Amino acid sequence: MSRMKIVDDSKLARDGMAYKRAPKIIHVYNKKRIGSIGDTVLLAVKGQKQKAIIVGCKNYNRKGGIPNFDTNNCVLVDDQNTPLGSRVTVPIPASLRSHPNCTKLIALATNFV
Amino acid sequence: MFQLYEKIPYLLARQPNALKQTIQTIAARNYTNTVPNRILEKARRSKLGAAAKGPSVGSDERPKLEQAEYSQAERDYKYIYPDFLPNPVYYFRDKIREKLERIDMINRRKQITIPEFYVGSIMAVTVSDPYAPGKSNRFVGICIRRDEYGLKHSFTLRNVIDGLGVEIMYDLYNPTIRSIEVLKLEKRLDDNLSYLQDSPPEYSTIPFDFEPVKLLPGMKVPVNMTKVPLKNKPWRHAWDRKALRGVILPEIKRYQHEEYMNSSSDFKPYEKWDLMKNYRETIHDDDHREIVQDIKKFESEITDKQEIVTAAKKLVRTRHIPKETPSNEKK
Amino acid sequence: MLKLNIQSARAILSSLTHANVVKTGLVNDTNLVTSYYLTNKLDTQSHNFSINYQQVAYYRRNNFTRPFNWVKRRGGGYDENINTDNKEFLNQVLLDKYSESPLKEAPWKKGEYNANSINKRLGLLGIKLGSIPQWTKDGKKIHTTLIQVLDNHVIDYIPPEVLIERNNIYNSNAKRTKNGNLGMAIVGAISSDPRNYTPQYLDIFKNAGVPPKRKLTKFMVSQNAVVQPGTPLYAAHFRVGDYIDVGSHTIGFGFQGVMKRWGFKGGPRSHGSTKFHRKRGTIGSGRDRRPIKGMKMAGRMGSKWRQLMGLKIWRINNKYNILYIHGPVIPGPTHSYVRITDSCLPKNRERFTAESHPPFPTYYPDQNQAIAEEFFDEELHKYTDPTITFETFEVKKITKRDGAKIARIKS
């Protein structure tokens, strides 16, 4: 149930961040059940369920070359992994370029770290 | 068993009965399947099993150490190459492993120039990335911390981009790193600047087109005396309980209370009288001489980069960070 | 003080393990003889019968009783009154003795690799030195542990016929010898001063002609992989790219509580809990009126025999006899003994063919032809190479099926 920051341009993202409850992760579509960069996730936003992709983590990574951010970031998507918004407002890690989930998401990003 | 060998001369002189107790306690740890470091070094050096033994560090092939005193340039190697120093904990050390590590590190340093830098200096790192358009990726930021010894040595950079703080850890000897540049060489008041995570963003924002600042020969390595104000809680770590010099805490009465500070685990007033503290955190001079010899040989071998080597020798380095100047605001 | 001749000193050392040294009357100064070993403790009658070589293998710690044929290792010792001149002289004599060729007999016939039968080679006894990172040519980081093979010699070989007799006598398991197909080879590591050991222990090394070792292990060996006692073993015994099994004792932590040993949660720190902060809950009770066996409780933690299987060898240093093995988690503290064998997993066995297999039965160095100082795996990046740039790397188009697959309807 970790709280996320939606880094997106869509209407639901703007309303969800301004809502009284912060968006939280309900479920991780993953065998390990622990989300990391590039994983799809089910969010609870503004009283409704919505899929999202994790785009940045706080967690300090010992692998080397992979960034960690001050907040946990995600981008809202629908079932075909197409993002709802038209722009990603923050930098995203460059390692997502090779990730199969994020092909459509990368076209919206402006900054790569 | 390493603890025992350190204690023996002291205990024999003072408390012979206590020696028995330490033997019993360490024997209970069941390090029975190991070779003590002292005996292993002796076995490598001995000529008994001559047939199956390769030459080793302690054998006759070992070059003779120069007993002369260090020059100032050689003494500065521990600031320029801090990653060459081994782990000071005796239990983790092995002489042959350190030697093989050093050979790998020097071979890597012949491929790219790894400059001298400190925690607090502004750096740029370019890494080769197969998916990037130019096959390379550049990042600029402040060096927050340096970790680990030898080949494992790593450093992290921090920057604020689009209002979001970003930190990246790099292994110093990662062969995918194309270049490491130091844009501004300076120190800070602390050895670990992780508290920048909980400070306002203007203290860690650096433009990507930062122009490099050059130091003239003969100058001291400058110390940046800025103090960073922290945000209100929640924080990532309890910064108020650590002995930090470069931090301004928010004004709450509780932080100024003495008992609150004394209850922290980092509060160690007894370290003033700890005579063995410096001994534990440094290595022996003979071990340091081996490292110095390897570095001197390496510096003489890179003929095309001699300008960088000579320019680095002209800077002045000190371990001590200057005390704050007394402020005149008080009346 | 008396000074020894070379001949008389050699006579002592050659007959180190016999009781009659004093009776021969070669030396009048008995202090010198006692400096090698204590003559009173000699037992030539019984100790040669069957020696237990399981100095490293796993045993249950809590109720450990030594087997009846256990050889006492430590004993003898220096005489403190010995003269310093004589001490140096004796050291020189020891070197002279063991610098001769260790092979006493004519060299045995070397076995050959047989693709149709069992090929089980002997292993090595190494020492763990610590871990360092390496990188592959793809830019991936690998942690490797360094294991040094120091002074390894083959010390004894027991043929399968003798092992079968032993199995009958002691009622031990016959499966370990594969029903009489495997013999037993003993390997020792780190040669040391013979004056520190008991004569019973020194008797083990008499046939091999090598100085006594600090540690011994045994390996079950097929009959075509027999190696003559006295031959040295090197790190080049293994190939780069092959897989190995590694076993050693884990770090011992002593008597520990339930939270550290098994990772239990413990109790709350406050909220009125008294004397219940780091304890476990119930042991359990019910019909049987006893706790179930194997219940997790406090006790001695660590120092158990553990094995890791299928670790890759990335790099071999032939100058210092060092193996670079995949993974940072090889059991034991630094400088612990490690037992290394060929991996029994099928992914390793399928690599071996009649044409390409590791040196059989071991690696014998050629004096005419020196091998390279280091071997690298093909995927591993050498530090002498330039930086990795991915210029020849081609980006594949990522294709993933969107939505569910639509079933075709037969028309």
From TrEMBL, chain A:
What domain of life is recorded for the organism? Eukaryota
Name of the protein in its database record: Large ribosomal subunit protein uL14m
Q: Gene3D superfamilies, alphabetically?
A: Ribosomal protein L14
* A molecular function GO annotation: structural constituent of ribosome
Q: Which organism is it from?
A: Brachionus plicatilis (Marine rotifer)
**GO-annotated biological processes:** translation
Q: Where in the cell is it found?
A: Mitochondrion
Q: Which UniProt keywords apply?
A: Mitochondrion, Ribonucleoprotein, Ribosomal protein, Transit peptide
**Family affiliation:** Belongs to the universal ribosomal protein uL14 family.
UniProtKB/TrEMBL annotation, chain B:
Renumbered to this chain, region (Disordered) spans 46-67
Highest taxon listed in the record's lineage: Eukaryota
Q: Which InterPro entries match?
A: Ribosomal_bL19 (IPR001857), Ribosomal_bL19_sf (IPR038657), Translation_prot_SH3-like_sf (IPR008991)
Q: Give GO BP annotations, semicolon-separated.
A: translation
Kindly report the protein's main subcellular placement as a broad class: mitochondrion
Pfam family, any one: Ribosomal_L19
Provide this UniProt record's keywords sorted from A to Z.
Answer: Mitochondrion, Ribonucleoprotein, Ribosomal protein, Transit peptide
Give the GO cellular component terms, alphabetically: mitochondrial large ribosomal subunit
List GO molecular-function terms, semicolon-separated: structural constituent of ribosome
The record's listing under Gene3D superfamilies reads: 2.30.30.790
Compartments annotated for it: namely: Mitochondrion
Please give the family membership noted in the entry.
Answer: Belongs to the bacterial ribosomal protein bL19 family.
PANTHER family reported for this sequence: LARGE RIBOSOMAL SUBUNIT PROTEIN BL19M, RIBOSOMAL PROTEIN L19
**Protein name listed in UniProt:** Large ribosomal subunit protein bL19m
From TrEMBL, chain C:
In terms of domain of life, where is this protein from?
Eukaryota
Composition bias (Basic residues) maps to: 272-281
Q: Which Gene3D superfamilies match?
A: Translation factors
InterPro entries (alphabetical) = Ribosomal_uL3, Ribosomal_uL3_bac/org-type, Transl_B-barrel_sf
PANTHER family to which the protein is assigned, alphabetical:
50S RIBOSOMAL PROTEIN L3 (PTHR11229), LARGE RIBOSOMAL SUBUNIT PROTEIN UL3M (PTHR11229:SF8)
Q: Which GO terms describe its cellular component?
A: mitochondrial large ribosomal subunit
* Record keywords: Ribonucleoprotein, Ribosomal protein
* Statement: the UniProt record of this protein carries the keyword Ribosomal protein: yes
| Species annotation | Brachionus plicatilis (Marine rotifer)
Give the span(s) annotated as Disordered.
268-293
The protein depicted here goes by the name: Large ribosomal subunit protein uL3m
One of the protein's GO biological processes: translation
Q: Name one GO molecular function term.
A: structural constituent of ribosome
- Similarity remark: Belongs to the universal ribosomal protein uL3 family.
Q: What is the lineage of its organism?
A: Eukaryota, Metazoa, Spiralia, Gnathifera, Rotifera
